[in-house]
Amino acid sequence: MLKITTTAITKIIRITRMTQTKIVKQRALKAKTNRVNKPKQNKEPKPITKAARVRNTRNLITKQGRGIIPKEHPAFNQFYELIQRYPYKETKIGAGIHTIEIIKNNRSGADNIMKINRTDETSVSFHWNETTWNKNHLRLLTEAMRHSIERSSSKNYKKQQKKLICCFCNNDKLSKNQYHVDHKTIPFSHIRDAYLKEYEYESIRSFIPVSFNNPEGYTTFIKEISDLKKKTSGFEKDWIWYHDELYNHPEDYQILCASCNSIKGNK
Ligand SMILES: [Zn+2]
Questions:
Q1: Radius of gyration of the chain (CA)
Q2: Ligand 1 centroid distance, CA of 39 (Å)
Q3: Domain limits, the chain
Q4: Is the pLDDT of residue 27 over 80?
Q5: What's the pLDDT tens digit per position in 100-112?
Q6: DSSP calls for 134-154
Q7: Nearest by Cα to 157 from 243, 233, 231
Q8: d(CA 239, ligand 1 centre) in Å
């Protein structure tokens, strides 16, 4: 009696197992039939940084060389996209782009600039270096003025330091050009404004530079070309003289890192 029962139970279990296997197999087959082959997801490429874009444009310009780039040219679209990114593109595009041209920058000699030749036969120069796009004139002028001083009077003070360390954040791990010489008591903006005041007269206001160079990511004055030689512009020369004559006081100098200096400078 007991034996029969055991066999019966084993039988039931076996059937159940078989049924289970069957169900599993059936489900698997169904899933296989219904499987939708998802297209392989391409990972979104990382957006490239502004610095990398500037590098690419510089390389593109070097590769193309000077000359006209018509719409049919393979590089045209890359230049076109660059113009599309410009926040005030309408002012440059005007009636429409006919061709793009790479020309010599007459104000700096070695540099190339872009020119947009419009459909209505007018043309306009275009600054391809997008790191300068969002800066207003005073900001660019300030950066160039700072850079001139960095290369003259401040350079000596920096050289005299045994170790470069930021007085505000104590950072001593940066590269040499990331440290600026700052005036402890006189804000740079005051010295700048005092000098610019000298240019307040209508007749000489036009000598304040309006366009700048940006060779390696820092703003500089454009050299003047005279007698086929590149020379420091009168504005820059006078500015260095002015600063050194009135404000070159090493006892008032301190070392700041670039970021602490820009935070201080904006106050
Ligand atoms: Zn700092």
A1: 33
A2: 49
A3: 50-132, 137-265
A4: yes
A5: 999 987 655 567 8
A6: T--HHHHHHHHHHHHHHHTHH
A7: 243
A8: 26
**Phi/psi of residue 257, nearest 5 degrees:** -75, 160
- Please provide the DSSP assignment of 165-179 as one string: --TTT----S-GGGE
Contact 109, 85 (CB under 8 A): no
C-alpha 190 to ligand 1 mean position (Å) = 21
Give first-to-last CA distance, the chain, whole Å: 100
Amino acid at 180: H
- pLDDT tens-place string over residues 177-195: 888 898 888 888 999 999 9
Residue with tokens 């590098």: 55
Q: In this structure, what token pair is assigned to residue 143?
A: 């950066």
Scored b (16 or more CB within 10 A) or e, 198-228 reads: eeeeeeeeeeebeebbbeeebbbbbbbeeee
Q: What are phi and psi of 140, to 5 degrees?
A: -65, -40
At the second CATH level, the architecture of 50-132 is: Roll (3.10)
pLDDT for residue 86 is more than 70: yes
Question: Which among 122, 69, 46, 66 has a CA at the least distance from the CA of 91?
Answer: 122
- Tell if the pTM clears 0.90, that is, is over it: no
135 Cα–ligand 1 center, Å: 23
CA of residue 141 to ligand 1 center, whole Å: 23
